[in-house]
Structures are given as C-alpha cells and as structure tokens.
Design brief:
Layout lengths: L3 E7 L8 E7 L7 E10 L2 H8 L14 E8 L10 E5 L14 E5 L3 E3 L6 H5 L2 H15 L6 E5 L4 H12 L3 E6 L5 H7 L3 E4 L5 H7 L4 E6 L6 H6 L1 E9 L14 H4 L5 E4 L9 H13 L6 E6 L3 H10 L5 E5 L2
Parallel strand pairs: 8-9, 8-11, 9-10, 11-12, 12-13, 14-15
Antiparallel strand pairs: 1-2, 3-4, 3-6, 3-15, 4-5, 5-7
Length: 327
Amino acid sequence: MTATMRAVVIDAPGGPEALRLREVPVPPPAPGLVLIRVEAFGLNRSELHFRRGMGHFGSFPRVPGIEAVGTVVAAPGGEYAFGTQVAALMGGMGRDLDGGYAEYTLVPASSVVPFTSTLDWATIGAVPEMLQTAHGSLTVGVDAQPGDTLLVRGGTSSVGLACIVLAKQQDMTVIATSRNPDRTERLHRAGADHVVIDTGSIADEVRRIVPDGVDGAVELVGTDTLPDTLRATAVHGTVSFTGMLSDVWTIPDFYPMDVIPNGVRLTAYSGAASDLPAPVLQGFLDAVAAGTATVPIAKVYPLEDIVQAHRDMENGARSGKLVVTTR
C-alpha cells in the first residue's frame, strides 16, 4: 500500500467541474474503522445534491461518495480479515467523513457489509446502495408482500429497476413509469408487467390497470408527483416516499386531508447500512451470478472521468446505474 492515493475532492459546492482528482494521503487505520481498497463505486443522486450544496448535511472540503466496494486492508478492531470482500455504505460517508470516490476509504465498521463473489468489480459496485434502497423501500417503506401489485414511479432509475427485479422475485405484479416512451422495452426487460408513460398525472391510467388501486407504491420522482401516486393507491395501500429525481423535496402548504386520500398510508424511507443485511447482499450477488437477477448498469467510467460521469447523472442521459472503477 502506498502513502498516497488518488481521490476526488470537492472544496465547495458547484457544478460537475467542482470535482477535482487529487493525490492525497491514505487515511490511517484506527480502532472501530475499516480501511478498504476501493475497486468500484456507484453514483447516487444524493451525491449530486451534496455537490450542489443542496440539503442540510455534510461539510467541505470532502471526498464524496456514500458507497464503495473493495477489499479490507486493515481493521484494527478485528472486525474483518485482510482481503475480505466488502461493501461500505452510508454512516456519514461522503458527507461527514470522506467517502468512496477514492482508491482507499476509511469507514465505520458498522457501515461495512461482507460478501464473497467472483463477479467483476464494476457489476458489484453498482449493487450496494441501489439494493439497500430498493430492498428497504419494499420491506421497511411499503411492507410489500408476495403477490401484491406494486407501482414503481421513476422505474428507469437504478433504484427503480432494482425495485422491479426484487418485486418480481416475490411474484408481485409491477407497474413502472417512465417519462420517455423509448425506455418502455427497458422496463419490460427488467420485469415490469405494465409500463405507464409519466405525464405527471398517471393515477387514472394506473386504475384502468388495477381498478381498486395498487397495494403499494415506491415514489422515486419527488413531492411534485407524490399526490398523484397517492391517488393511484388502494385503501390501506402504502406509498413509500424514497427518491427525489425531480429535485422537488417538499409540498408547499401541505394539508394532509387534501393530499392523502382516505385510508392510504404514506411512509418514507431513507436507509442505513443496517437495512442491507449481509445475506440479502450475498443472495442478490449469487442470483446475478446464476443469471436469475440482473444489475441495471448504464455505463462504467474510469476514476479520471468522474466529471463526465456526474454530467451524465445530472442530465439523465442514461437509464440505470452509473459506476466508476478505480483501476
């Protein structure tokens, strides 16, 4: 291991050009923390928000990145052996402490999830945060059950595609949305039973497919479409507010009895590393290796192309997960 590493640093909020690739010291191991040799990391919308200075979290300068995959270099607390394959996610990564946009990252042991896989690192790098958010949205947010009817609003996002894959593994009927008709086949390939083109108002069309409304819905677009998603949901059905692809976070003058239909449940899911149990991650990776699950990768970039990767994420040029490899 060298004394220095390549890392992406943000000194202050800005556009994609605010991401600067630099040579910085490798962080020293410490008890309770795990030093990981990063092989790949996925890009996430929250990292775009952080880069812009949106929200009320994090500090600068910072190495961003709320997830990474690689192998353990050191764990002074004895939590993991050298060379263990691990994913790291959340726990303040990329916000309150330096994150995964680097060749090495030092993270709390509580943010680490071990696995064993022969899949390539780019494929593995697409999985942790995407799977954690999709799994948590379905289990914690919606409490979806086998055989339910599920609406995935924002289906061509990486989390949306993962939700579809996980839902079909439980024999759910999936209705997925996209604003772009050209992505209909992409959603069907992921497993969606029905595709609705999102005009901003889809509740009536969803109810033409499921007259009583869907049992559950994962809202990934934002609060601008949330009221319409609630109207597409059955009495005693549940909507999980999970994502903000539209960057619309709040509902002005929110009046619950006007926004939430009678008997429809509204929850939220934001997630933590503890919401991705090691058996769930291992099971998903094994399913990918066996060909019974797919990872919706849109494009893989080298670390030096991080600015272009953020540009592509910002303009929505690609459907699926964007992944960066470090070597």
